[in-house]
Design goal:
The structure holds two protein chains of two kinds. By secondary structure, chain A is α+β, with helices and mostly antiparallel strands. Helices cover about 15% and strands about 45% of the residues of chain A. Chain A has one domain. A two-stranded antiparallel ribbon of chain B has the order 1-2. In chain B, about 45% of the residues are buried. The chains are: A alpha+beta, B mainly alpha.
Chain lengths: ~150, ~220
Amino acid sequence: MNRRLGKILAGALLLAMSGHSVLALDGVALSLKLTAKDAEHDPDGVWSDRDLDNIRQTFGPPDIYTARITTSNGTWLLSQTNGDCNMQGMCTAQLVLIEPGKAPKLMANPQMPLGGTAVLSPDFKKIKTSEIGENGRPLAGSYDVEPVK
Amino acid sequence: MNSMTLSCAPARWRPNRADVFANLGLAVGMMATLAFAGESAVSLLNAGMPADCAEYASNVSQSEGNFDSISPAVNGTRCYGAFQFCDSGTLQRYWSGSRADFLSRPSAQVTAWQSYERSEWAAAQKNGLTSMIGQQVCYQGTCATITQSSILKACQFGCGAGGKLDNLAKAGLDCNAAGTRDGAGTSVCSYLISGAGYNVGCITNSNDGIDCSPVAADKVSQ
């Protein structure tokens, strides 16, 4: 009972600290929104100018979708482009932890619908997605949140 | 005595609920398998697939669907055909007609698939992922030499910057490295291995695989 209450309070605290997220049942939802259309440069620095140029040459104008929450241990940024999507439309996203005074760290790279929503667990150890598998059927995705080299 | 035995036998035979549900589950599973059995190399050839890519395309289709497959709706999105192009934008990128026309025209699906694969190959080249070709990858006791078809198949995990294949390359082909698994926990390495050795010349304009289909072999001999 106390553990459940703790989770709810942790979630409520996260919600209070964030202007861009919605409290989900099992964590905090990061809902991607289009923030840079036909981008030549990523203001967050997740995607390099070269990455964006490659997307432009291969698929067309690159769009960037982002969502972020600020917590006591830093800001969690989820960033996605329209340039790396499979046949089911699941596109690579990057979860980045930005801690004060430190270089941003890539923590996970979920695949998810373009402009979709992922849920970061209250303990920041998992990020969950609602995906479409390669057979066209729903897939509840779960990714470890840990430094990616 | 005999009539007594006969009249009692059906009552004794009644299956328990667990058996009924188990059999029902098996039946549903078999139906699902039949519904998504995938297209053969021959049927893909008949739909206009270039002979050199038919075996690989069939391998991909086995995980996806048949020409007339429609997926259940997931958040309003459905996926169509032998390669399960979804109408969240991907289908629209590679097919400008209606969904019904796409389903009823296997040749359109084959053309869309080739176009998609060429884009993926171009992305893999631009992002330096093709440099892994020729290297050996080992995962769960199975090893394979990475070929062009390995790369194309693993692009299901993304072949752009920061994708699973990119991370694997940066991690020196360490299949246990972070950021190299999909949401179901499947390693990109398993796709590199299962996709290895196919001829994908119709996409890459060169062949480092093996021709298995009779038509492709015939073409080579000519």
